[in-house]
Design goal:
Blueprint: H1 13-44, H2 65-68, H3 76-96, H4 98-119, H5 130-147, H6 150-163, H7 179-195, H8 209-216, H9 218-225, H10 266-269
């Protein structure tokens, strides 16, 4: 019988393959759809006053940027770099921990804008989804450390392998790059990982017969391997007692034990 704390028993290979393909397809559609929306917004920026939706630090009106800034970008190269990161990290997060990712996205969205609004210079404009991408990377990596199941650990290693350089971009390095939004998104990603680490059930793991046998016979094996107490160990040899008397004869040495003869010292040989 399956232990209640154990992960569910996996499906057969064919059913598991169909489930994985469906989850991957759903993740690609979600990430690709959002990236397509960003490209449409970039085209519309040519005709709309987009600065009203950018984050303007330390300005009450600039708080609208918490909602609109991740949709806006400064140009083709800016959006292209964020599109690749969103496709890879978004798909990885949705495949591995879809429940936690959906709940974390509002925090990542608002956290990136809030970081730019609090830490940015007055009079500047902050746009772009790079804060969200940093939040996704820190979310995936932190969930790998907290959950420690194989899927989460593998996703965390992949995210760190491809985008581990984001650890450096949360600090000021290059002029014109909103490190404040990066830092806000990263902090939001770590917080979201702690809040939603138990949302997604652990992946199914096959339980083998010998694991069940080990659990059932654990107590019996412990008793069988326990050494006897010292008082129950038979004594096979006693040192001869010089003070023995007729009433208390010395202990007899068993026949199968060679008696120990004291070695003569230098005085005896003199």
């Amino acid at each position: 019988m399956e232990h209640p704390a154990d992960p569910p028993t996996p499906l057969d290979a064919h059913a598991q393959h169909r489930l994985d393909r469906r989850r991957l397809r759903r993740a690609l559609w979600a990430s690709g759809g959002f990236v397509g929306l960003l490209w449409l917004v970039l085209f519309a920026q040519q005709f709309l006053p987009w600065r009203s939706l950018a984050v303007q630090p330390q300005s009450v009106h600039g708080l609208w940027g918490l909602l609109g800034a991740p949709l806006l970008h400064g140009g083709f190269e800016h959006l292209l770099a964020n599109s690749i990161a969103l496709l890879m990290l978004g798909t990885l997060a949705m495949v591995t921990v879809p429940g936690a990712t959906v709940r974390a996205l509002p925090l990542l969205w608002l956290g990136s804008g809030l970081g730019a609004w609090l830490l940015g210079e007055a009079g500047s404009y902050h746009v772009g989804a790079s804060g969200v991408t940093h939040g996704l990377m820190f979310l995936i990596f932190t969930l790998g450390l907290l959950r420690r199941d194989r899927a989460a650990v593998a996703a965390g290693l992949l995210a760190f392998f491809f985008y581990g350089g984001m650890l450096l971009t949360i600090l000021p390095r290059e002029a014109g790059v909103s490190w404040q939004a990066h830092l806000g998104g990263a902090v939001a990603g770590v917080i979201a990982a702690f809040l939603f680490r138990r949302i997604d059930p652990p992946p199914a793991r096959r339980v083998y017969s010998w694991e069940l046998e080990d659990e059932d016979g654990e107590a019996d094996d412990a008793d069988a391997l326990e050494l006897p107490r010292p008082v129950t160990v038979p004594v096979i040899w006693h040192r001869p007692d010089d003070s023995a008397t007729d009433d208390h004869p010395p202990q007899r040495t068993p026949d199968n034990v060679v008696p120990l003869v004291p070695r003569s010292g230098p005085r005896d040989r003199a």
